[in-house]
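=== RUN LOG ===
request id: a7f3
mode: sequence -> structure
chains: 1
length: 476
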Amino acid sequence: MGQETDFNGDGVRDIAVADPEAAVSGLGEAGVVHIVYGGGKGVTSISQDTPDIPGAAEKGDRYGHTLATYDHNKDGCTDLVVGIPYEDIEDKADAGLVQILYGAPGGLTTGPAVLEFLQGKGEGNIGSTAAEAGDWFGHAVAAGATSSGEPYLVIGVPGEDVGAVVDSGMAHYLRGSTNAGFTQNTAGVSGDAEENDRFGYAVAASPNHIGVGSPGEAIEDRTFSGGLQFLEHALNSGGIPTPLAGVEQDSPGINGAAETGDQLGTALAAVPYRPSGASSANETLFAVGVPGEDLATGEDAGRVVTLRVTGSGDVTQTADINQSYAAIDDVGEDGDYFGQHLTAVNTAPGSTGTAQTVLLAVGAPGEDTETADARDAGAVQIFPMVGEPGSGDVWLEKGRLGLPGQPGPQEYLGVGLTADRQRLHLGVPYGPGSERGVYGVLWTSLLSGLPDTVSTVRPGQDGVPAGGRAFGAVVR
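=== RESULT ===
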């Protein structure tokens, strides 16, 4: 993360807030995305019942289940990618769909027509791959621009069957005229397509590299241990991004061991990185969520591994982060699911990366706080991605550093996270009605530990429609 989102090109930060559980015309979990324009320029709410948006709102579509932003047509206005993995395509339930909503000076939906991607339609690999029930096309999306400035889009399809191998998964890559797809049976990609690998469940990318998670990957007889594939944007002779390395917890140099249910690769985040002495940010730091990791202090406590991918394609571990390390606040407990959601930012991407500029936020939605009856209240921890993670970690829960209210049960703070160069934006989708919303905490406040102004987007305020069910579950 880290690119500014500006859908109308006026130079003021805008924000997209999804409520994938919202009802539309009485249809439960049809899903809505709210666009809040900066500078008080209004709010637009978008669903599949909105004029000029293809399709129709349907029960269980979960419009906005995933979001990404980039400038696809390079007109200076940010475009919004909307993943709808539970969209039914004809009689194929949960086949999935992705839309690009183009930015324009008048805002989203006022410019070029919406561009849709669905398997079996159009050109390239997406068009030649059939839509099937349970594909979950668009379950994960990542978008941005390469180091040469070319826009790209990565789409995860974790439910794709490869031949007769069920739910082995796939990823699609779109850049310029390239419309390519790859699985674990593609030449150069590590591993083999196996049942329940869920390759493409999570995707992340920087201007230099791409990461694809397969949390269902079995390592020998250890099912759902998880794995990763790293690639670079340059295409190989097969016409796909060049595979660099596959990683799992039994890989040399990776801490821990592959265990049943770890689910390495459930969440991914990536930032461009310029190491000391380098002339440019041609490397990438990846954060990898392992939310099912068991610690001595609790089952499914979770952990995060950070990995450095160099310009030459070497992959090394830089940190192993969990709440049971002495230098890190709190203790890993049963069901914390630390690492279930991640976001990362480089606040100065052209400069040498430091502990103050390359930052990671880790969601632990199952965290039980000390507040009475606050089971699964959730929490977020912030770590430097350069240097020792415990040297500057920050604990964030409701009631701290300007977040309103106090932790409550089943609020799952940490599920909605995104970042830009000024703020960490946190969704509170399941709190009391008066506290639900999206809150932007300044990085300067997080690093100093001193409260400062917190930006606020809430249902029923400043033009945002009231109601909904999970406002802020996804934020960009």
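=== NOTES ===
The chain is about 0% helix and 35% strand.
Residues 220 and 258 are 9 Å apart (CA to CA).
=== END ===
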